[in-house]
Write a structure and sequence with these properties.
Blueprint (H helix, E strand, L loop, with lengths): L6 E8 L12 H4 L3 H21 L3 E10 L5 E10 L4 H14 L4 E8 L13
Antiparallel strand pairs: 1-3, 1-4, 2-3
Protein name: Ribonucleases P/MRP subunit Pop8-like domain-containing protein
GO molecular function: ribonuclease MRP activity; ribonuclease P activity
Organism: Rhodocollybia butyracea
């Protein structure tokens, strides 16, 4: 059995869906960097679990823009590393912040204790 000291979360941060009458999307979400992502997650942890929850240590390992169907960046993909015992708290805080942060939607793409497992997207049999 594989035992890891870390747990990895692949997240997608996207602006909320906009109506066709307002076709431009907010750029603040798309211009976010690793520090901004880390601050957003720590803010969500602090709101959900208080000062103790906000002190959960995490590393932002990777940040990349996703290109949408119109050829422009429509979301930001992120891989973060957390302690395995803290992974559920991070996911719970991010789920709770979805309702309190209307300018950003955070989606879990994949999670794993094994970093290379995040490389696979679709499995076809």
């Amino acid at each position: 059995m594989f035992i890891s000291n870390h747990h990895y979360l692949h997240l997608r941060l996207a602006p909320p869906k906009v109506s066709s009458s307002n076709s431009h999307s907010p750029t603040s979400v798309l211009d976010i960097d690793a520090l901004g992502i880390r601050q957003t997650i720590h803010h969500a942890l602090s709101e959900s679990f208080g000062t103790t929850g906000g002190s959960i240590y995490l590393d932002v390992l990777w940040v990349s823009d996703s290109v949408g169907s119109e050829g422009r960046s429509d979301s930001v993909e992120v891989v973060i590393r957390v302690n395995p015992q803290d992974a559920r708290n991070v996911l719970a805080a991010l789920t709770a912040t979805r309702s309190t942060t209307p300018q950003m939607q955070i989606h879990l793409v994949k999670e794993s204790p094994f970093l290379p497992a995040l490389l696979s997207r679709d499995v076809a049999f």
